[in-house]
């Protein structure tokens, strides 16, 4: 179940409440059961769901309901609050959002499956910070996909961002290390390393990621995820997190049909906040992530 379906399921459960003239404990329980079911089917971690249910019950006091307050509104608000809470970590130790420190050579490594929008997102990220006065640079450590370097080069040139890569060197860790060293020397303060994605969660990909990470010692590792991935989100995010020290998530293609598939699961699996979202193919179709508008849209 993708997040869009989760939204409809939750909205459906809440709508049913409106059919009852009196909302007693029984009606409330039935509604909470549906809310819980929707979350579980969306692959949200069961511990989170149990906690969320408890928090909702705490917020919606049945006595208040008896006093004639609008049950649907109250419950809607509680579900909204809890989804926000969950996307912000739900009490788990989600890391602070990363802000590159000016004047320091911040190294940021991008990881994610092929096709998720990683290379596009690297340039968007660089451009975003360039506008804020940083001096970004791009390193292409993807030697697996033919054309990866050309793509990065083209994007970087358009945005007037320095880049580094090689047509002949086959060791991604070496390219990454050389590129980072070059841009440290050139006093770039945001050095972005794009890595290979391949198609599946192949062992060799993960080994390569490990090697690149060891070679460049990133200050931040960003996991890029396609929003339409749905059910696979949790496993995928977990697999990346188990290999490298993911500390941020970027969800791409939110301009498509998916309303944000798997975002909650990715946050839960990586214990990392969503830093940005991609909303189109163009370089400035990129936004800093804001939880509340996202959840409003989900329940909309
Ligand atoms: P990579 O293999 O992960 O490096 O993926 P690419 O950066 O090459 O992107 C794959 C495709 O997705 C390209 O056609 C991009 O233009 C497209 N893409 C990337 N981000 C977005 C986005 O936020 N919205 C849309 N609609 N397309 C995107």
Task: Give a written overview of the molecule.
The protein is an alpha/beta fold and 300 residues long. Helices cover 50% and strands 14% of the residues. The protein contains 12 helices and 8 strands. The chain has helices spanning 3-17, 25-41, 46-59, 62-66, 71-87, 118-131, 148-158, 172-185, 203-216, 233-243, 263-270, 291-299; strands spanning 106-111, 136-141, 163-164, 190-195, 220-226, 246-252, 274-278, 286-288. It has an 8-stranded mixed sheet with strand order 3-2-4-1-5-6-7-8, with helices on both faces. Helix 5 packs across helix 12 (291-299). The longest helix has 17 residues, at 25-41. The protein is elongated and about 70 Å long. The protein binds guanosine-5'-diphosphate (GDP). Residues 112, 114-120, 197, 252-253, 255-256, 278-281 line the site of guanosine-5'-diphosphate. It catalyses: GTP + H2O = GDP + phosphate + H(+). GO terms for molecular function: 7S RNA binding; endoplasmic reticulum signal peptide binding; GTP binding; GTPase activity. This is Signal recognition particle 54 kDa protein. It is found in: Cytoplasm; Endoplasmic reticulum. It comes from Micromonas commoda (strain RCC299 / NOUM17 / CCMP2709) (Picoplanktonic green alga).
Beta-strand content bin: 5-15%
Low-confidence stretches: none
Beta-strand segment tally: 8
Gross geometry: elongated
> Mean pLDDT, as a whole number?
85
Largest sheet: number of strands, sense, barrel closure? 8 strands, mixed
Approximately how much helix is present in the residues?
40-55%
């Amino acid at each position: 179940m993708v997040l869009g379906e989760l939204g409809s399921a939750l909205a459906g459960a809440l709508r049913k409440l409106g059919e009852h003239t009196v909302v007693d404990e029984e009606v409330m329980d039935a509604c909470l059961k549906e809310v819980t079911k929707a979350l579980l089917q969306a692959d949200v971690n069961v511990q989170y769901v149990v906690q969320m249910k408890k928090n909702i019950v705490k917020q919606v006091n049945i006595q208040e309901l008896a006093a004639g307050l609008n049950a649907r509104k109250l419950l809607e608000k509680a579900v909204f609050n809890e989804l926000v809470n969950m996307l912000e970590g739900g009490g788990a130790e989600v890391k602070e959002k990363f802000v590159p420190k000016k004047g320091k050579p911040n190294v940021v490594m991008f990881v994610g499956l092929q096709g998720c929008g990683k290379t596009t997102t690297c340039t968007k990220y660089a451009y975003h910070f360039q506008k804020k006065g940083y001096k970004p640079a791009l390193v292409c450590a993807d030697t697996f996909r033919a054309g990866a370097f050309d793509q990065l080069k083209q994007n970087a040139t358009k945005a007037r961002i320095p880049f580094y890569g090689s047509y002949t060197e086959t060791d991604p860790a070496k390219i990454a290390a050389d590129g980072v060293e070059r841009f440290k020397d050139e006093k770039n303060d945001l050095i972005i390393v794009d890595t290979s994605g391949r198609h599946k969660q192949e062992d060799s990909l993960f080994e390569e990621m490990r090697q690149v990470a060891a070679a460049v010692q990133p200050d931040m590792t960003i996991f890029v995820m396609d929003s339409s991935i749905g059910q696979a989100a949790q496993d995928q995010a977990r697999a990346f997190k188990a290999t490298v020290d993911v500390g941020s998530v970027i969800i791409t293609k939110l301009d498509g049909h998916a309303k944000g598939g798997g975002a909650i699961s990715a946050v839960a699996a990586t214990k990392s906040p969503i830093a940005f979202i991609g909303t189109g193919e163009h370089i400035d179709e990129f936004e800093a992530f804001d939880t509340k508008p996202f959840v409003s849209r989900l329940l909309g």
